[in-house]
Amino acid sequence: MCCPAPPVIPDAQNTSFVRGVGQNHRIIKLGAIYSARGDKKAAALPSSHTLSGVDVKGSFSAKGKISCWKVFTGASEKTLTGLAALGTSDQPSELAQEAAEQFVCSLYLPNTKICEIGDLHWLFFKKNQALSEKLPPTKAALQQAILRTHYQAMI
Fold it and tell me: How far apart are CA 106 and CA 134, in angstroms?
């Protein structure tokens, strides 16, 4: 099965966004970031950012942007391709859902071979780390997070 090419951000060299409000704002140009990361990571960056938590979608318990960034920068090509596919069709593809699940598993347990959230729950439970604030999301909660991320990426 061939993987689809990651979508290219139109005119990424001239794209920017404003951070902050009122007099306390700054304009961040994305061209340098896009070039430094390369096509695959740049295409996956919006979905990774949204999945890890934004104003309209909560973040994962005790997992901040720095932890998410570390997982993103070390993500496999398959994970990047899947994240980049979020928002490119009417429903998230199986590849995109698997990539998001792998991303979250790596977020809670770096360098893990576990790629299913249920297996990760079981591992945490066996290690007596079953405190609710330390657990990864349930499969159902993760599915909703993926759908919200997909929707945000479409917009």
Answer: 14
